């Protein structure tokens, strides 16, 4: 199996490792040290060598932060991880605090006057540092950049080696555009002499390459300097350079070792250089300013073009979703038959689904570790089963499975909630409310300029009417054989100034979670379609096209709670699932699918 159920940390990490970090801090004259979750590339999912917060505290979630003072420490997490962090972190060492409400800035405001708190400039965005510096100043404390990261010093020989996965060409039959054309197009629109590109997903997209340095994501860790004429310098560990790579990149791209990066930035003295303060760490800004470059703060120039998929990418991702939908349908058939008479445990469900995806013969990886959550674990949105936590689904319970695959032609992410045995009336009612929100997003028409934050409430209206809600966003962007979480588009309560544009892929995943009892989430990926004229209207409107094709458990739907329009929409979606997935599965599965997709 690709996914394991081992735990990479334990609550003893804090008691063992924090004293070592404090010793290293003391040698540098520091009273505290900031430990962000992000690494040098601002990654969400980290190679083991860069998972500093996990090594320091034991917490392995995909978002968080830590502060280690000489006499106290804290770990900060959001609502997705409030239960997980208490299982993983020794609360005798770390105080558990909210990442969103107050967060690290509020904690720094309690620092002692005169305290010197260190930070690694390679790990923090300049915008985040500005907020943290202001908070420390209010307490009379100071934030100080360190030349050597004391946590890394404490980690020492125990620290895993940096990943060196081979970097390989990503063929144009999947990418849809030559790298040279991308570089010329992006370079000509920089509005600067050069741009520093540090986001691994942007580098993979711009150069039409893929790697394996980041778990579950085919990304190479590298940096690049793109010039206005489309030529570039790509800084990549020589151990990752495959035989075919130099010829693939061509003469306009020079391959250089990472050690040459600082000198390359110094050579930009007197030049205007675009750098993204949300994607690149403060170190790049500090280094460029020290070199005498004119720093232009702006969005990574690859971000929007990467998010707006071209026709080849969309055709590929549609095929990837049909292939993946057939694998998921086989799994749902298994749950509806064997899984009802002999309910699986979480590990069995995860392994079975992975086996169906593996049987496609073209699976490159999972797009993230499968969330197979039975019983009360379903109320933990980012739960991952382990040997210790594994539970068997009980009759009369819900099994929530959030999963995805990485294929050369696309990345998938889908959640289905399945009744094991007979669901309660409350489960059916709450699932139907979630479904109403999912359908509201899926059928939406919206004008150009509409952002995800403008439509998020539509997914919650039915829940709100019953005094219910969920604490995560409704949708995130997704790449094409890239990251399963990709910006800048998203659907959430948080303000977002980036409009939904044709070719953008976004998830549609409202949910409901009852602590200790069950969780519900229904997730499809949707692609934004070009605006079309609506009959009788005077403005063209965009719409979504569902990419995900798999049945939704009809046993959890109360037709009486749906409008006639919602019933017709639900039935039309299932008719499409049957039409496109039915021919791809075995007769036995097809027969079940016909029942699963029957009109309400």
UniProtKB/TrEMBL annotation:
Any idea which GO molecular function terms this record carries?
Answer: metal ion binding; metalloaminopeptidase activity
Alphabetized, the UniProt keywords read: Aminopeptidase, Hydrolase, Metal-binding, Protease
Start and end of every Peptidase M24 C-terminal domain?
541-600
Tell me the domain of life: Bacteria
Ranges where the Creatinase N-terminal domain occurs: 21-146
Q: Does the keyword Protease apply?
A: yes
* Domain named Peptidase M24: residues: 317-528
**Can you list the GO cellular component terms from the UniProt entry?**
cytoplasm
**One of the Pfam families matching this protein, by short name:** Creatinase_N
Family, as annotated = Belongs to the peptidase M24B family.
Protein name according to UniProt: X-Pro aminopeptidase
The record lists the organism as Caulobacter flavus
